[in-house]
Every structure is written in structure tokens, then in C-alpha cells.
Amino acid sequence: MPNWMLEDMPELSGRTVVVTGANSGLGLESTRAFAREGAHVVMACRDVATAEDARDEVRDAVAGASLTVEELDLANLDSVRSFADSVADLGRIDVLCNNAGVMAIPRSETADGFETQFGVNHLGHFALTGLLLDSLRAAPDPRVVTQSSGIHANGEVDFEDLHGTDDYDKWDAYAQSKLANLLFAYELDRRYDDELTSVGCHPGYAATNLQRRGPEQEGSRLKLAAMALANRIFAQSAEAGALPMLYAATAEDVEGGDYVGPGGFRNMRGAPETQRSSKRSYDEETAERLWSVSEELTGVSYD
């Protein structure tokens, strides 16, 4: 639908939506929109206290908002498993939004020894989706929406050095993780197209806290100031940046394997539309290899 906006979202009463990274930015804006349409939203967040503040903010803005905060640290597979166990009582999950992520940070490792960007952005969500598969199957028309980035086009999956132990560049690692997001989204749809709809999306250039974390971890005030200035001048709002994920999660004309992003200037802003991602993102041989490696690394096997 051209010029799709928040007002075009369907009514979602009776549906359950899980949003990772729901305490700020795109996740918070999406949570607000889902709640406004009557969905029960599970806010899956690493920082529970911050998430509870965000929950209260949404409740103040949306009368009758149905929200639950659950702890989820995608950098720790034990936490991913605990979260999956905690939401099992929901019975079904209609939409899973794999939204949380980190961007262009100095090299570090997750609790399980993975390079953090690859571990959080891809492996954590790969494990989460697999552990929630039964709950998704219990829904009549489930969707999995995985947030990528236009920077995925610069990415290449380096199977010989997935975790950047030999050679690490923060932007290369980010691009690899975002390419992995799309390879996973498309392969999930190929494998389970008769049971769920799996879609990739990207927000364009949206002003969120994501851009701050790299400069903050580097301790660079200059880079932090430059990023803040760029956000003010060039970026669209987080509310606008959330539209592609909301469209992918709810629009009737979305099909499995779609890639949704802003249709305006250089795909950085504007109303959501279906687009083509990079040639590498559709490489089925790479996707199958990544899937096997991801199962081995996480210990989560899809049936």
C-alpha cells in the first residue's frame, strides 16, 4: 500500500506480540503502536528497570495498554532460554519482532564467547526464534520480522573468522551481522513457509540510541557529538523509522521473504515499501551454511 502510515495498522485485539529491545527507539515506538491497536505486547529487554519505565510511559499514553516486561539478554544464551521458558505460558505468539541490536562497537564478546555484534544481532535472535517456534506455530497466521539495515549490502559472512578474532573492524562486523539477519529471515521462510511468514526489514536512517553506543564505549566525545549532529540534521524520527517493522508485522499484502524499508530518498526515510536487498542476502548456499553453523554455536536445533 503506498504511503502506508500508523493509521493504516489493523486492529490487533487478541494477538500477542513479542518485541526485543522494546525499551527505547524503534522497539518502544513499535510497542506503543501495537498496544494502541489492542495487542498484548511482551517487552523483551536486557535492562528490566528501564523497560518498566518505558512500559509505564506507554500505559500513560495508551489507555488500556496490555504490556508485560520480561528480561532478555541476547548476549547470553542462558537468558534467551529463560525468556523462552517464561513466555511459554502465553500459549501462542502471533508476531515476533527481532528488533534489538548493537552497532559498530569496539570488539567484545558475549557470555558465550561470540563476537558481540554477531552474537547479539544474529545468534541471539536465531536461538530465540527457534525456542519460540512452537508458540509461533500455535498462532493462526504467525509472523517473524527481523530487523536488518541498509548497511547489510556492505556485508560478507566470513566463515573462517566469524567472531573477528584474527581481524576486527567494527563496521565490517556490523555489516556481517545485518547480512546474517536477512540470510536467516529468508531461510526461515523457505523452511517454514507453510507454517509462518518470515520477513526482513530496515528502518532507513532513524535517530535512536543505537548510534550512541559505539562512541560511548570508545569514550569519544567528538564522535558522540558528530553522531548527535548527524541525527538532528539527516535522520528521521524513531516513530517514522519503526514504520517498516510495523508494516512488515501487520500489513495484509506482506509475503514471506519480503524486505521492507523506507521508500524515500536513498531508502533512508519515507513510507514503507517492499524492496530488494543485496544479491548476497539471497544466496541460499550461504544461508544454509549459516543456519548449520548457527545451530552448532547456539545449541538450538530447529526440527
On the 0 to 100 scale, the average pLDDT is: 92
Succession of helices and strands: EHEHEHEHHEHEHHHHEEH
What structural class do you assign from the helix and strand content? alpha/beta
Q: What is the helical fraction, as a range of percent?
A: 40-55%
Rg, rounded, reads: 18 Å
Distance between the termini: 35 Å
* Spatial shape: globular
List how many beta strands DSSP finds.
8
What's the total helix number? 11
User: Strand portion, in percent?
Assistant: 5-15%
| Main sheet record | 8 strands, mixed
Q: What are the segments in which pLDDT stays under 50 over at least 5 consecutive residues?
A: none
Identify the strand order in the major beta sheet.
3-2-1-4-5-6-7-8
Structural overview:
There is one protein chain. The protein is an alpha/beta fold. Helix content is 43%, strand content 13%. The chain has helices spanning 25-36, 48-61, 77-86, 116-131, 133-137, 170-192, 210-218, 221-234, 238-241, 243-250, 284-298; strands spanning 16-20, 40-45, 66-71, 95-98, 143-147, 197-201, 259-262, 272-274. It has an eight-stranded mixed β-sheet with strand order 3-2-1-4-5-6-7-8, with helices on both faces. Strand 2, helix 2 and strand 3 form a beta-alpha-beta unit. It is globular and about 50 Å long. It starts with 15 loop residues before the first strand and ends in a 5-residue tail after the last helix. The model has no long low-confidence stretch (mean pLDDT 92).
